[in-house]
Amino acid sequence: MTTLKNDRLLRALLRQPVDVTPVWVMRQAGRYLPEYRATRARAGSFMQLCTTPELACEVTLQPLERFDLDAAILFSDILTIPHAMGLGLHFVEGEGPQFERPVASPQDVARLGVPDPEVELRYVMDAVRVIRRQLSGRVPLIGFSGSPWTLATYMVEGRGTKEFAKVKGMMFEQPAVMHRLLEVLARSVTSYLNAQIAAGAQVVMVFDTWGGVLTPRDYREFSLRYMEQIVSGLTRENDGRRVPVVLFTKGGGAWLEAMADTGCDALGIDWTQDIGEARRRVGDRVALQGNMDPCVLYSSPERIKSEVRTILDSFGAGPGHVFNLGHGIHQHVNPDHMKVLVDAVHEQSAAGRQGRAAKTR
Amino acid sequence: MTTLKNDRLLRALLRQPVDVTPVWVMRQAGRYLPEYRATRARAGSFMQLCTTPELACEVTLQPLERFDLDAAILFSDILTIPHAMGLGLHFVEGEGPQFERPVASPQDVARLGVPDPEVELRYVMDAVRVIRRQLSGRVPLIGFSGSPWTLATYMVEGRGTKEFAKVKGMMFEQPAVMHRLLEVLARSVTSYLNAQIAAGAQVVMVFDTWGGVLTPRDYREFSLRYMEQIVSGLTRENDGRRVPVVLFTKGGGAWLEAMADTGCDALGIDWTQDIGEARRRVGDRVALQGNMDPCVLYSSPERIKSEVRTILDSFGAGPGHVFNLGHGIHQHVNPDHMKVLVDAVHEQSAAGRQGRAAKTR
């Protein structure tokens, strides 16, 4: 294995000192980049792009050519596991992901098995291996999965939803069935992430996109509990280094303390929380990743720089901060603004450290 | 003026003792009721229904015929003020509200004036008067408005949005222009709610549907500050009784303490907060209104009753609770389930009081 040249991300996620604050951005390989749109067009469909390791590798690396990012994140979809379970994932232009065979009954749940990551999800593992080879130790590679609750929402609803009536219907009326579904999903996610780690992922992140639509009681019982199960089941080492685990619940600011107690290394937070306040709440248990409002990237370079300043100042001195947006980058953002963001994080956090060092002298 | 026969809502909002916990539901006059759909069809359009006082009165009273509710809420739209300012509100089937002339420039903002509620919004005041007459003191009437920030989002975006790119663009790049817009909206909302109170509204509520998409800093500067200005400008009396003011920011659970400090009487809370925890945070400063997940109404009567129990128990003993959903009732809910909810709140809270009284003896 090649040596990791830039290990800021790993160090910051484990709350170790770094020279400057590392930065990466959710959906950094995505539609706001013209080169991504070109590869996507060449692939023919989004699914083709996801399932062809060489193309997934190509788009994963694209943002690293333009920006001084401290991490690459595997290009894939959060719904690969239900697809591997046989639900028939497809994408309808302008409508997002849909399943041909949603989960509707206890029988449907009983039929679901844990996919073998090196068989049904081989294309993902191959992508991880190709990307690691191409990266040759430049920055670490982040693997990821959707959370069991988030996967369950799509599997039961069959598509995106605003009301969540079907999946909550199952949760309220047939909690035992819902727990069986979440149980098989938790085992599948654990096996999937462990396979990504074995294939070369150096950090893993669980995206709980829809945990924030639950009451605090239901969140603990139907989302957090299964993420905790995943965290305990993960192989936490790769190339002799610890593999940090990041949990991110969109809209989950109310439950940061409980999330920090799962044994994960870091929490992603969205922009509706003050990151300094979040840090006071979780203390030294976990690192924090976030949390700029993605809409700030539509603003002028000066405004972007001042928002970076505000967030770095709010987090304050000491280790444990990975800069990110609070959600995926929007598709109409000017890529030059992304460069302003990445450079501002490095420059300002370096200056901050010198300033503080000067004061200490 | 006729005497108010059921004043539980007013008492609970002012944290005074009540015999049972009062209950009403956001959008209780709405599409889940077949009689509403019939009146809506007769009106021809949603705008026609809103702007015809007799029809607005008819649908306002419909849920009171079916359910033992403790309040009526004026049937209207949150976007009446921008419509009165000349933006041209219309509703596109399946797409929600849209404005013909959105606010795009500093010049557009400079042109906006405070509407005269008894002229441009006369149809709303007439509806309040007709409803009060028809209610003849049965339950109190709640008047309402959208918050300045929420009105501004629709006025700048021109329609519903998921990204809020335009309105946040103005906020980030032209904060002075945004403040001018919010200032004229705060004066308009104050005048609009005071006119509703003069016409007969016995409680007023400000709906801040989109405050939850802001950072804590931006929320305080661009949403909360203007709601506070409105609260201080309201006539707080009607028929010799205090008119309670309720603030509701969807997704605003992080800022309950700051909201309670505005001088309002009560806070609406959504279901992502534990109501007992919210009560501990705001102490005796305000009453709380909420907070059942609207999706529970898709469940069985038994499940609805158990959720009512959980919420009443979480709030605990003592005054200051108005039962409500955490958001508007969904359109496909069976009206019989709404009856289960309303009756369960009354029965269980009465039993709870007897139980506690028995223990005290």
Q: How are helices and strands ordered from N to C of chain A?
A: HHHHEHEEHHEHHHEHEEEHEHEHEH
What is the assembly state of the chains in this entry? homodimer
Largest interface: A-B, 34 and 34 residues
Count of strand segments of chain A: 11
Share in β-strands of chain A: 5-15%
CATH architecture of chain A: Alpha-Beta Barrel
| Averaged pLDDT of chain A | 95
Would you state the CATH class of chain A? Alpha Beta
Kindly state the percentage of residues in helix of chain A: 40-55%
* Class from helix and strand fractions of chain A: alpha/beta
Integer count of domains of chain A: 1
Total helices of chain A: the number is 15
The largest β sheet of chain A comes out as: 7 strands, parallel
Order of strands in the sheet with the most strands of chain A? 1-4-5-8-9-10-11
Which short descriptors sum up this protein?
homodimer, 11 strands, seven-stranded parallel sheet, TIM Barrel, alpha/beta, 15 helices
